[in-house]
């Protein structure tokens, strides 16, 4: 997994154009948007916001790992619930799930159902968090590309000149 992450970061660095000469004149927010849509983090590299890459991949990696974790435990509790719900049936339709049922402590079906539903809800929320993290990385790349040439020099000032019936303001940069 680390080799894939390192390879992806190297690919992003190589594919991200430098902002000198031709690339600086043709650097567009649309270019950042499309790059961010194709590969998470590519828009940030295009904008030279390299420090944001760990944030993008941390959010996506955390969301994906939470999804895998909750899905694993959801399937375990679902199997145990199916076994417990049909304990009185003969022949038992879910006899192959007995080991899972016993490994989870042979809990009553109602508790297994509550736990299964809680895990399914958490898994679904984790899946939504993947979409939110991906969408925020796209939005960040697009907004950062718009603000790339925004002047934040220290000589910004605002002067107010009060008059008899007017207030005049002058913004200098």
What does this structure look like?
The chain starts with a helix and ends with a strand. Strands 1-2 form a two-stranded antiparallel sheet. About 4% of the residues have low confidence. With 173 residues, it is mainly alpha-helical. The chain has one domain. It is elongated.
Tell me what portion of residues adopts beta-strand conformation. Answer: 5-15%
Give the total of beta strands: 2
Instruction: Report, as a whole number of angstroms, the end-to-end distance.
Output: 48 Å
- Cα Rg: 27 Å
Q: What class, by secondary structure content?
A: mainly alpha
Could you state the order of secondary-structure elements as H and E? HHHHHHHEE
In total, the number of domains comes to 1
Mean pLDDT comes to 85
Major sheet attributes: 2 strands, antiparallel
Number of H- or I-type helical stretches = 7
Biggest sheet strand line-up:
1-2
Low-confidence stretches: 16-22
Residue share in helix = 55-70%
Shape: elongated
What are the key terms here?
2 strands, two-stranded antiparallel ribbon, elongated, single chain, 173 residues, mainly alpha
